[in-house]
Amino acid sequence: MALIKTVCGKTPRWGEDCYFSENATIVGDVVLGDQCTVWFNAVVRGDVNFIRIGDRVNIQDGSCLHTLYNKASMTIGNDVTIGHNVTLHGCEIRDCALIGMGATVMDHAVVGEGAIVAAGALVLSNTQIGDGELWAGVPAKFVKKVDPQTSKELNQGIASHYLMYKDWYKDDDIEQK
User: Fold this and answer.
1) What is the model's pLDDT at position 172?
2) Torsion sign across C-alpha atoms 72, 134, 86, 114
3) What does pTM read for this prediction?
4) From CA 113, how far away is CA 51, in angstroms rounded?
5) According to the model, what pLDDT value does residue 158 have?
6) What long-range pairs does 66-71 form, CB within 8 A, spacing at least 24?
7) CB of 92 within 8 A of CB of 107?
């Protein structure tokens, strides 16, 4: 079971059919929707401000989600993919967005619906990424608009794969010998 920790009287809550890896950490004022996954070594730390996460969000291995004390909370929409080793800090990620491996999104940034933040990108504080836009680089810059149907298929496809993966882990109990 993941480390689920109450801080300052705030206990994480989640919906139905979620999966949290054994060494995932979820702390404080965190609410996750239905069918969410938090994978190995990921940390969702709602100790200094709240984190709200929609349905079918996958937070992949090694990612860190945190907020800014009294200044920046975090909201993540539905069908969002947060790639391996991503850092999200006090930002908003809207429905069907994809945050690529190793990317960082800083305080008060907004990633629009169906947008893609490329692997390794650094999205600076207060950046506004529009719906269906692809951003890449350090610091991240606009690259191009992504076809809405292509974006939807890519982002929802990855999200649905993680729903399948969680079932593999729920069904594979290894006996201790």
Assistant:
1) 56
2) positive
3) 0.92
4) 18
5) 86
6) 66/90, 68/107, 71/107
7) no
* Pair 77, 54: CB distance under 8 Å: yes
Q: Is residue 97's pLDDT more than 80?
A: yes
Mean pLDDT estimate for the chain: 93
Average pLDDT rounded to a whole number, residues 89-109:
97
With a CB cutoff of 8 Å and minimum separation 6, the contacts of 128 are 109, 110, 112
Which residues have CB under 8 Å from 133's CB, separation 6+? 112, 115, 116, 142, 143, 144, 145, 146
Nearest to 134 by CA among 158, 115, 156: 115
Given a contact cutoff of 8 angstroms between Cβ atoms, the answer to whether 33 and 57 are in contact is yes
> Coil, strand, or helix at residue 124?
coil
- pLDDT of 105 > 60? The answer is yes
> Three-state DSSP class for 157?
helix
The pairing of strands 25-32 and 43-53 is parallel
| Interacting residues of 32 by C-beta distance below 8 A, sequence separation 6+ | 12, 13, 14, 15, 18, 26, 38, 44, 53, 57
CA dihedral 38, 46, 12, 94 (to 10 degrees): -60
Q: Please compute the mean of the pLDDT values over residues 24-49 and round it to a whole number.
A: 97
Please give the span between the terminal C-alpha atoms of the chain, in angstroms, as a whole number.
Answer: 19
Name the band, by pLDDT with cuts 50, 70 and 90, for residue 173.
low
